Every structure is written in structure tokens, then in C-alpha cells.
Amino acid sequence: MTIDFRQLQYVIAAAHAGSFRRAARVLDLPESTISRRIRDLEDELGVALFIRSHNGVYLTQAGNQFLPGARKAIEQIKHTVTNVGAFGRGENGSVRIGIFTSLASGFLSELVRAYILAHPSVRLEVIEGGPAHHIASLQRFQLDVAFLTGEPIADDCDRAHLWNEGVYVALPADDKLTAAREVTWSMLKDRKLIVMNADPGPEIYDYLMKHLAELGHHPEVEQHAVGRENLMNLVAMGRGLTVTSEATIGVQYPGVVYRKLATDLLPFSAIWSARNDNPALRRLLSLARGLSRRWLRDIDQTAQASR
Questions:
Q1: What is the pLDDT of residues 179-199, one digit of tens each?
Q2: C-alpha span between 146 and 153 (Å, rounded)
Q3: Does the structural domain 94-163+268-306 have CATH classification 3.40.980.10?
Q4: Which of 64, 73, 94, 200 has a CA 20 to 30 Å removed from the CA of 254?
Q5: 256-276: pLDDT as tens digits
Q6: Where are the domains of the chain?
Q7: Global pTM?
């Protein structure tokens, strides 16, 4: 059985108007079109929907049974079309983002807040993890976009550098280095450093080993099977120092003081599958690029003002 969407509209219009002629006028169609298409529908159903008379048309018992369903079907189709259109414009649906830094403050925090405000009907899901896991998830379409340090390269993925963050050293509050405005790598070469086993610990470990080895020093870096909070508690207890990104220092821990690591910046990039056609993702990337331009402009203006 084939029923045309327009046939349902013609039945509803004729029932409301009480006449094929008046229904045709409302729909701006020839009366013959309305009459013929409703007759085709009745033939398809095998039952009359209208009683025809010189005074107009009246619904049969079958027509009275058919009309509520026709109205419901029209509303469902309209609702579906509206939802699909909103999805295509990125106004609803979902977007899954992988992160490798904190949402406490900084660029990513501002981006997520702005996106939620601009697209309240889009479900935004945040997944924490390391670069390798995030990239594999992007390639399997289990993630829409990941925000990672450096300039990661992955097959069939696009990338955009969006922002930079300073690197900070987490110190015990009574450490002698708290007297310095900034910490240099040479100040750390004889210090014990600690990192987490879990992400982003391994990347921080490699980062520390690389920079301290460049000073001709083999650093002492311990790995601990703890989360970020307990790692900072170990720092407060004097068990070692650690480094962290600028965004994470928005969270304060008792007994821990942050000092900027001079000259070091961490670049952050967005990476996504080139074949991902999620409209909500495109809206997020567009917002991220706009925010990135503003952030870079503000940094340039601040640097010029400090000269």
C-alpha cells in the first residue's frame, strides 16, 4: 500500500472545509486534483472516506476512524523534518570530545562553556584519556574531536593548532623555589620529580626526561599509581615536585604553590576525522577557531603592552 503525504493533507483539508472546492481554494490547487487524489486513496484503502453531496462532503464512519491517524502522521512527519533540519544545522544531536587537560580554566574551559550556551540542545560528552586512545577513537568514530598537546598526526585526520598554555611547577608551600617568580630548568636538575602512572603522567615523564637530559643531567623522576589529587598531596608532603599545564592551576590544593616554568609553552591542537560529517562538530570547530583568533590577538596585545 502506498499513501502519499499530500493525500493525507487533502483528506484533512477537505474534512475541515466540508468541501473539495473550499479545500482546493485553501491549498491553492484545482478541485479536480483534490477529488482525484482522495478517490485514489479510497481505492487504495478499499473504503470510502467521504460521502459526496451537492452541499459538500461528509466523513463516513471509516473517514472518522482515519482522520485522527492522518493528523497524527502529518504531525510526526513535520516533527521528524524539523528535528532532522535542526540536526543538519548543528542545533541538536551530540558531540563527543576527548580531552588531555583540565576544564578548570583556560581556553578549553571557555570553549566548552560558550558551546553549551550557544547550543543548549546539543548533548556534549567529555571523555578523558591519552593521545593514543583518543586518536584510535577518532578513527573508529567513537569520538568527534580530541584536544591534545603538540601537533599530533594520524591517518585520515585533520588538525588545527588552537592555543598555547604555560607550564607550571607544583611546589610544597615551604619550598625555597617559591621565592622565585619563575622557575628555570636548571633549578630543577637536582630535584626529585614525581608523576602519575596514568595519563597524562607518561607524557609528562617524557617531557621532564627530555628537557633535563638536555642539561646533561639524568633526572630522578618517580611514577606513582595515584590520581591528580593525591599526586598534589604528595607534593604538599614534600615527596617531590611535578609540572602541570596552565589550565590545571585553577584548582588549588592545600600546601601546594605553583610557579611558572620560564620560556616553556605547550601547544594544543584539535584533531578530528576528515570523514566525520557531524554538523554539531562543525559548529564546535568553527567556534574554536573564532575563540583561538581572539586568544592569540589578546596575547599579542598583552606582549606588546609589557614591552
A1: 999 999 889 888 899 999 887
A2: 12
A3: no
A4: 200
A5: 999 998 877 888 899 999 889
A6: 5-88, 94-163+268-306, 165-266
A7: 0.65
